[in-house]
């Protein structure tokens, strides 16, 4: 009976994994089709595969938009960590008046719909001559990811016994030495998972990138809208562009999956 249950659980696991992976598989299959085959409904499973769409998109400069997305994701994540991690450390390990109110204020900034803030942001950045630059997306994404960084890292820091902090202070360690040499190494897995999630959110963001950029600072999500024209949707080309967009995230997630799982199980979803 135990063997049967184990086999059943394994089978269900593989089925669920296939269900989650199937959209990516179908995306890749569609990218190998001719446009006339990709638009057929119901979809055709018999076709002559071709890589011409990948070749065409690469020649059209998809690497430029991928580089823009990478620069924005890395820079915005760095700023969010630079500001958010020390704040999370202070809120987790030190007695600060009304710390719960501060935390709620940070997370409340995520409640407002993005459509409600786009007009003031657009006018602000227009007056600063930052529209259609990577700088505007870096600043917006850093602010967007700050609550995520603060809440996740605070949860990780709260798992550290305060006695370790006190012991380091007794031994003469300064606040910076305690922070960099004791606490950060202890939350390494949580920090990596926070970095990965922040970069993924910045990489995938579409609304701000569409509203605040035109040509020079387009990112991958905005670039993919070029295949939605008045003539119709170019499904095969759009799928090929989507493959280019998801491959870096898949590679990053694959190499950091151990740290990601370990970090998320350390208490990242605690209040």
UniProtKB/TrEMBL annotation:
It is found in: Cell membrane. InterPro entries: BP-dep_ABC_trans_perm, MetI-like, MetI-like_sf. The keyword Cell membrane applies. The keyword Cell inner membrane does not apply. The chain crosses the membrane at residues 7-29, 62-91, 103-125, 131-151, 191-214, 234-255. Keywords: Cell membrane, Membrane, Transmembrane, Transmembrane helix, Transport. It is a multi-pass membrane protein. Belongs to the binding-protein-dependent transport system permease family. This is Sugar ABC transporter permease. Residues 66-256 form the ABC transmembrane type-1 domain. It comes from Pullulanibacillus camelliae. CDD domains: TM_PBP2. GO terms for cellular component: plasma membrane. One of its GO terms (biological process) is transmembrane transport.
